Amino acid sequence: MESTFALYGAIVAMGARARLPARLRGPAYRAFARATGADLGEAELPIGEYPSLGDLFARRLRPGARAIDPAEDALIAPCDGVVAACGDVVGGELVQAKGHTYSVEELVVDDDRAAGLHGGTYVTIYLSPRDYHRVHAPISGRIHAYDYVPGALWPVNPRIAARRDKLFTRNERVVIWIGSCAMVMIAASGVGNIELAHAGVLRSPGERRRVELDEPVTRGDDVGAFRLGSTVVLVLPPGAAKLDVADGQVVRFGERIGELA
Description:
Blueprint: H1 2-17, H2 22-36, H3 53-57, E1 74-76, E2 81-88, E3 93-97, E4 100-103, H4 104-108, H5 111-115, E5 121-127, E6 134-136, E7 141-149, H6 158-161, H7 167-170, E8 173-178, E9 181-186, E10 195-196, E11 200-201, E12 209-217, E13 222-225, E14 230-236, E15 241-243, E16 250-251, E17 256-260
Antiparallel strand pairs: 1-17, 2-5, 2-16, 3-4, 5-14, 6-13, 7-8, 7-12, 8-9, 9-14, 10-11, 10-13, 15-17
């Protein structure tokens, strides 16, 4: 089963990276938008200027396409998607789906920093093919490190998440440390090569890698992008924020999803 998904992921990844002839891009991308419900009218560039489907997924928004909640105490959605799970980190555990949990230590692979997240809150957002696929800072602060964690490339849609134990801690991911918060970009089937604003493509096949840095970010700043569907898990320490979202809720980047302390 693992080898089957690895092969499938490799084929999907190749398709996403393949450059389309310019004359085919418009028709192909419009067909994709009709099939998925993606809003390509928000794209920064004319759709014919995206060489591949992966580039289209990682598109930036045109100026003014989204508004950032202006309240200083607003915790904003870092991406588009559907809330797959949210709540408190109880006993160091997060819910993946009904009947499936995983530990924050397994997720971030840093026991010392994970200890500071026990008793905190988390929200998991699933990005489907219809969604805008860039990820932004949900709070203002400083990015201290990126941790690349190698792993599998299982699909992360809710159907698979409800069946596959510890899915998010088995897949390839990048842990972004913003202050004492962890924002985890989890790769999915065919994704890999997660793009990061301050570190380029952070990928070292088979090897963990940490990039230490000290970069200030303002809430809403571009942090990275996926090139196909994926998941973001945001974990905040105790007392940092009160969430105001529910399972199954559709969220859009920039919207308020909680109140900062």
